[in-house]
Structures are given as structure tokens and as C-alpha cells.
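Teaching assistant here, posting this on the class forum so everyone can see the example we discussed in section. The complex has two components, and the goal was to see what a joint structure prediction looks like when all of them are supplied at once.
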Amino acid sequence: MRTVIEHAWVLTMDPENTCYKDGYIIIEDTKILKAGEGPAPLRGDRCIDAGGAILLPGMVNVHCHVPMIPFRTMGDDCQDRLRRFLFPLEEKAMTPALVYWASLYGIAEMLLSGITTFLDMYYFEEQAAEACDKAGIRGILGETVIGQKTCDSKAPYGGLIYGEEFIQKWQGHPRITPMVCPHATNTSAPEYLQRTFALCEKYHTPFTLHASEMDYEMEEFSKNYHMTPTAFLDSLGLLAPRTLLAHCIHMTPEDLDLVAAKGASVAHCIGSNTKAGKGVAPVKGMTERGIPVGLGTDGPSSGNTLSMFTQFRLFASFHKTANHDRSLFTARDIVRLGTAGGARALGMENLIGSIEPGREADLVMVERGSVNMFPCYNPYSALVYSAERANVSRVWVAGQELVKDGVLTQMDLNEIRRRLWENMGDFIKKSQEFSAII
Amino acid sequence: MRTVIEHAWVLTMDPENTCYKDGYIIIEDTKILKAGEGPAPLRGDRCIDAGGAILLPGMVNVHCHVPMIPFRTMGDDCQDRLRRFLFPLEEKAMTPALVYWASLYGIAEMLLSGITTFLDMYYFEEQAAEACDKAGIRGILGETVIGQKTCDSKAPYGGLIYGEEFIQKWQGHPRITPMVCPHATNTSAPEYLQRTFALCEKYHTPFTLHASEMDYEMEEFSKNYHMTPTAFLDSLGLLAPRTLLAHCIHMTPEDLDLVAAKGASVAHCIGSNTKAGKGVAPVKGMTERGIPVGLGTDGPSSGNTLSMFTQFRLFASFHKTANHDRSLFTARDIVRLGTAGGARALGMENLIGSIEPGREADLVMVERGSVNMFPCYNPYSALVYSAERANVSRVWVAGQELVKDGVLTQMDLNEIRRRLWENMGDFIKKSQEFSAII
């Protein structure tokens, strides 16, 4: 099966930032065969005229908790919400069915906004994997290991047992990488951080956790260990090329040096970090040291949109302002973070993140017909400074067209919402116990 | 003519933040007759079932340069672009026809994103007024007075003469307030700042200018006058209730005290200020002092979207982060800034900005059917943290429905774009002189 797309403004995001203003792409089955300027040299079983739309690699979301859709717009402006109601409510109210339908909904939202690969960490990841399998998206799915009772384990650290079974069941899936991940530096005992890392090594998966995110986390490590969380992870042998540190808001220059020296990566979640008033991670210091950085939407309750466009715009504004330099991180640099940068942070740069022969055919088309997309001298600027979810017109994952004309091709969004809503009654009832704070 | 809207989630933004979850609004000709909970007590010539959509006052954009549409995506990441290419290119290339079609395009974009009132400052404002008149939006339109040659005046300060004729011609229009405005604190000589203010007094219009925005502006005032721009304006007698200071990024506590004491207002443009890396205005200090603050998109080349949703999201993230407090400025506070707050900053709070009997029927309906709008426990959170332009379904100005199902009812967007594009050839040719920097 060969699909030929012509008359697209192709942003390949290859190492040279090659760009074809009136370009073509040839998809052969699940992979990209060729891309270039002008008319395509081969005909396809299917030919698509992009009519000048922007075509870029599918966007890569390196940090998410997709099953948290039911929490969206709940207690957004509430202080210390993680401990005050997110943890207790999810422990009481999340069920496998709710995780399944919420994951399917959130995956639909990601596809509709041009995200074709996401890394998730939550509970009942078995159900997240089922949703991922059904929806056709690419997922790196981590069962959470945490030192407290959770919705899917009465015993602390139950995620380790659940997780190994989960990995064994799903390993080898063409689009799904099952894994385990500690929740955070301060919510698993050191021994369990190491045991979780060992499982990731055993099964050759990434190792990810929340790190250097919370004020109180920083204080705890300073008080208990006289170390930063980064130095502490290193002392346990947990900084490695497979390590993806989520957030990294509070990092010293020495922390950044350590991360760079050990070849670890960072998942930067500007939307969630700043909505929570936590701070701005020092991304300039990261990229200067060559640390791979990808962008994460975080969960729908923390970041609210599952759209990379929100991250793009916030990233530009925050890092230019933090460094008082409007020329720092050009729009092209930012689009790179959301595509090839994310792929590199996940260790998947030979598979996804750029439009090059042999890469998976994960692609996003962004139309230029809507009012906010004109004029467009610079397509990177349009993507970063004016585009939004609704400008995404078509999406392919592994050559399969999952979004067409801004609508899902394989699933019915209204039906997913209906089923999700049916499963939310008990969740909403239980949320009312927290009504004084949310 | 009476229109009745039922089954809407009505956010009145009245002083008590009254909200009707299954509410109605009755529009009588150009004004709001009544709003409340439950079924409407009167029938209309036209009845609309909102189906649970959010209905709020039309959004108020207190700072814009709408004719700058042709510049969008041009040199976004270029340092000092105002002096390096914006000023010279607009002086060379802007024409009345280009201003007319660009204004019509930008106004269309604002209507489609739920903005029903905007304050503009540019050149050839005669043409902006014609576009405003045709489009049905509400505009406060200022001809710029500046101490240099411009596209509409060979002599410096030509805007004063142009402007008074412009005011005389358009005064009394039901939706248009013509005015004059100095460009900035440092681009008009003090005498001309005062003469412009005197014209605004004579014709009872707002007085607005860029103030405390630029690093070099701050340095110039410090060096030349040993004063801040705010103290300097006050020394000239130019801080008054009619004064609307745009940007106010670099403000001392004393500056804020002065602005508050004199009853002046602030147009806060978080999107443009931060994209340019300039800084974050101290809005907490402003609202604590009772200074009226509205939100501005700034021009389409500075802010890139003409959507208040972009400002909402950036406002939340920046001010929560600057103050390290996620509970500061709730989503409801932020929606207020974009509606009633803007109306108050313009001195129009008895006319627009809230849903109350007797106010103009300027209304926006935001649908909740799209993927990013579910769930929605808190409609303010949905508007601030997840909504985007494309969620706007209907817009009324003075009772006239200008947007329906996300499409303009009175104008053809494609035709406007075609005519604008026809007028952009010379502009684009002249922009190529600056190709080394953009």
C-alpha cells in the first residue's frame, strides 16, 4: 500500500532542518519511503493533494497521565492539590473501566491535536494499553510504582508486581512499549527506585519519574540527604541514558552537569509547571549541555490541554522572558523539541520524530485555511505562535490515517465520551467529599 | 426584535459573579433585557437552544494594532525588530487599501474568537473605522501621533491633524469611538504628548499610549529626566481617569501608587510582552491597588493570535509563576479581566463587559462539544485552561449575530483574504529589503 502526498509544506525536522515548500512524501505501508521538493517521482495507490498545508513529523508527548481526563477543570487553582485531593481521590475512585474510557478519550484528544507518540505513567496501565492498541497511537506506558496504597494495589509498591506482568504481556507490540516507573524521587524508598530501575534494565525500557518538581521534595532531600534529588538519583546509580527525568524545575548547574555527563534526558512540562506556579525549568542550560529535552503536556488535570501547541506557545514566552532574549529558542527550535527532540529524549530517534526514508510514517498535517494561519511566511512561527489543536487536519501513525478533516477515522468521539461519562458517576460522587477545597 | 437564548451556562460577570447553570438571556433589539436561571419568562421572535454551551459577555481587547495582519510570522524571533524593520517597513509599505483589508481580516479574526470590542492604534485609522463599520464590531480607534514620518504623514506629528478630522467625521457612530493617541512615552516630544491629551479631553475620548514597555525607554527617561516614564507622564498632567497605559512592564511600586492615585488604567499584553522576552508586568500590584486592568492581544505581529484565550492561558501561567502561587488569580478572576475588566479600563463598564439588564447585547457562546472542553465542572477553568478560538460558536454585537456555528454571518472570510492578498504584493516585495534580519 503506497500513499503519496503532494503540495505540502514539508518540515522534515531532519538534522539539517530540510524543508520542502512545495513538497511530497511517499508512504510505503507503515514507513516513509521518500520525501522531496516538487511532484512525487512515484504514483501511489492513494494520492493526496495537501493544498499547501504544513506537514511535519507526528508530535511526541514525553510526559502524560492520560487516564486523568475525569479530573479536568477540577480544583485548578487549589494549593497543594496533589496531596490534598488528587492522590486521595484517584485512590478511591479510579477503576479499570474508568481508566480505559478516559485513556481512549485522552488518546483521541492527542491524535486530534497531532500527537502520535506519548509516554504515560499511571495505574491500571493494562487498560491504557488496551486503549492505545485500539486507537492506533504509539505509546510508552508505565505502571506507577509508589510507596502508598493505590487504586490498583492495596500494598505499597504493588506496581512492581503488576508492572512485570504487564510488561510480559505487552512486550513486542508494534506500537506499545510497556514499562514500570517510580512515581517520584520522594514517593518511593531508595531500594524501590533501584528495583524499578532494574526491571527497566531487564526489559530494555526507558526509566522515568517525577524529579526536582516540588518545593517540598527539594526541602526533603536537602534535609534528609544534604543532596539534591538529582545527586541522590546519581548516588543510587539511576542516572543513565535510559533515564528520563520529568519536570526538573529546580536544578543547580551541577545537577545539569550530572544529567549531561550520564546521558539522561528531560521531559519538560512548561504548561503544567507554570499553571501550578512552580517555576520554569532551566532549559537553556540543558540544551547548552546537549541534554536531550522533549516536551510533555502532563496530565489533562495538570496541563488541561493534551495539545503540543499549548506547550509551544508557553515554551516560547517563558524561556524568552526568563532569559530576556526574544531571539533565544527560535520557532524552529521549539518545533524540533516537540518532534525530533521528544523522540531523542525517548531513545526513539531512529524510529520517529523526523521525516526521513525508513522512519515510521507518523505525520501531522496542519491546514492553513483557518483565520489564524494567514499570512504564513514562516511555517514554524505559525505552528508555535498562532496554531491550535483545531488546525490539525490529518494525522497518520505507522502509515495509518487516524484523523481526516479534523475527525477521527477509526473511532467515534461522541460514543467514547458517552461511555466515559457513564463510568464517571461514582468518581463525581466521591469528588464531592473534597468540595470544600475544589 | 427579541431573541431568547435558553439552556446556556451563563457567566454574567456582574459584580457578584452571578452564574446560571441552565440559564436564559433575553435580547431586545440591541440590548440585554433580562437573564436568569431556568426557562425564559418571555418568548422571542427567535429562540435559540444553547444546548449547555457557555455564554459570557463579549470579550474586550484593550490594545491592538489590527492592520498589522500582513506582518504576522515575519521576523518573530528577531531582536529589536520594532526599530530594525517594523517602523521602516510600515512607513514604506502600508497603504489605505492595505489597512482596510487587513483591518477587515483582523476584525473577522477577533469576532471568530469572541472579541466584540477592541481598542486600536495605527495609521490610516479612517480605513480601520470603515472596516469596523462594515464588520459590526465595536471599536475605539486611535490615529497614532508620533515624532517621525509615517505611512500617512510626511511630517512628524501629522497624526494630530489627521486625527482631529477623523474624530469629527466618525464621532457619534453607535459602535465607533474615534480618537488620537501618542505612540509612546518616548516617541513624541512632551509638548505633543500634551497636545494629544488635550484633543482627547476636547472630544471626551480615552487617551492611550505605550508606556514603560521598552528597556531603552526606561534608560532614556532615567538618563534624560531622572524619572520613570510614569512619573514623567504625571509631571505633564497626563495621568487621569481617561488614561490607559499600554504594557506597563517596568513599574516601580511608586509608579503603581501614582497610577492608582490618578485613576488611570492599564492595558496588559502578556502574550506580546513575553514572546518578546520583555518581562511580566506587575499585575498583582495593580489589582491590589484597584487599578483597572484589561487584557490586550497587541497587534497580530506582536501577539500573533487575536484571541483572548491565548491571553487567558498565558496570564494564568505567568502571574501564578511570578508570584509562586497557583491560587493567585483564579480562572474566574482572569475571565473577568478579559470582559468586565477591559470594559472598566476603557471607561465603558456601564455599556459592555457584563450580562446585565440594559447593557449592550455583546455576547459570546463557547461550545462544549469539542474534545478539549470535557469534562467541565468549572466553566471559567475551561475557558482559561483549555478553550481556544475554535470553540467559539456564536457571537453577537449590539444584538446582531455576527458569528454562527463558528462562521461569519455577514462577511465572507475567503473573499476578505483574497482581497487582502491582492493588496499585499508591494508590501511583500518591500519586506525583502529586510531579508537579512527577518
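For the discussion questions: Chain A has a mean pLDDT of 98. The domain at 2-57+353-408 of chain A is CATH 2.30.40.10 (Urease, subunit C; domain 1). Think about how each of these relates to the inputs above.
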